[in-house]
Amino acid sequence: MKYAVGIDIGGTNTRVALYDEKLQLIERVQFPTNSEDPEITLERINNAINVFDKDIVGIGVSCPGPLDLINGMVLNPPNLSGGWTNYPIVKRFKEITGIPTFLENDANLAALAEAMVGQGKGLRYVQFLTISTGIGSGLIINKEIFRGAHGYANEIANMIMWKEGPAHGKLSPGAIEGIASGTAITNRAKSAGMDIEHAGEVNDLAISGNAIAQEIMDDAKEYLANTLAAIFAVVNPEIIILGGSVALKIDGFVEEVEKRAKQKVYMGLENYVRVVKSNLDEDSGLIGAACLVFNNA
């Protein structure tokens, strides 16, 4: 039996898992990501891999974009900084572990997992978006990741949807991540004086009648629906799968976004717009990373 290591490096936590060829989870560990120094995080990953002690054919690394997939580098992801900027992660993994390493955008790998074992299983054109701390996206065509001409396809976080809209980190004002991500929803609410910690609390205030919270949640749903309608017009996927904490934990969010998206496509095409919640947990990136290894090793 051959094995693959899937690694999901997030802005908060890093997860490392061992999978067999049937994509069965064998072992899994999790620890905080050092968001400033990648070498510390890689050392802990290597320690975990050494404990696995199996015939590992490759390492799949899921990391937030933007990435330079041709040269195997992390560029400047919004939730990682310091030494992570322009970091040659594939080269360093090979130097440290001696194992073939494959890098991919975290949303692309989550999308691959959805197409292989999730809501998109058996479908040819699978679009995935994660609506969480940030917003990421991936498109799978015939079980292959669509990367575009330079590897930057589906980097939609900076898609400008709102003229002179909210500013958000390194992104341009009015970017969809600055409107509909959990971080954006929370920041807008805090700026309006609300004592909240996460997007779910903003939604609770909206339900209770807070007019500003209602406006923030309405903006998130409306502009996200615009984004999905645009994706549908360009890509025409069989399914659009939404994952991430905002999509999965806020009751009715996905259903409302689907309803709005259906109203924004050509008349007669609304029945083809299918937007569903992911049925995979937070480990979808790990599963996708293992798929990447077995597809390439």
Compact description:
With 297 residues, this protein is α/β, with parallel strands linked by helices. The chain contains ten helices and twelve strands. It has helices at residues 38-52, 89-97, 106-117, 177-180, 182-191, 199-208, 211-235, 245-249, 253-262, 284-296, and strands spanning 3-9, 13-20, 25-32, 56-63, 67-68, 73-74, 101-105, 125-131, 135-141, 144-145, 239-243, 275-277.
Description:
The protein is an alpha/beta fold and 297 residues long. It contains 10 helices and 12 strands. Strands 3-2-1-4-7 form a 5-stranded mixed beta sheet, sandwiched between helices. It has a 5-stranded mixed beta sheet with strand order 10-9-8-11-12, sandwiched between helices. The chain has a two-stranded antiparallel sheet with strand order 5-6. A hairpin with a 4-residue loop joins β5 and β6. The model has no long low-confidence stretch (mean pLDDT 94).
How would the blueprint of this fold be written?
Layout lengths: L2 E7 L3 E8 L4 E8 L5 H15 L3 E8 L3 E2 L4 E2 L14 H9 L3 E5 H12 L7 E7 L3 E7 L2 E2 L31 H4 L1 H10 L7 H10 L2 H25 L3 E5 L1 H5 L3 H10 L12 E3 L6 H13 L1
Parallel strand pairs: 1-4, 4-7, 8-11, 11-12
Antiparallel strand pairs: 1-2, 2-3, 5-6, 8-9, 9-10
Helix pairs in contact: 1-2, 3-10, 6-7, 7-9
Enzyme class: transferase
Family: Belongs to the ROK (NagC/XylR) family.
Organism: Breznakia pachnodae
Total of helices = 10
Biggest sheet character: 5 strands, mixed
Total domain count: 2
CATH topology of the largest domain: Nucleotidyltransferase, domain 5
Structural class of the helix and strand makeup? alpha/beta
Mean pLDDT metric: 94
Distance between the termini: 14 Å
Radius of gyration: 19 Å
In percent, how helical is the residue content? 25-40%
- So what's the CATH class of the largest domain? Alpha Beta
User: In CATH, what is the homologous superfamily of the largest domain?
Assistant: ATPase, nucleotide binding domain
According to DSSP, the number of beta strands is 12
* Low-confidence residue ranges: none
Order of helices and strands: EEEHEEEHEHEEEHHHHEHHEH
Family: Belongs to the ROK (NagC/XylR) family.
Protein name: Glucokinase
Pfam families: ROK
Keywords: Transferase
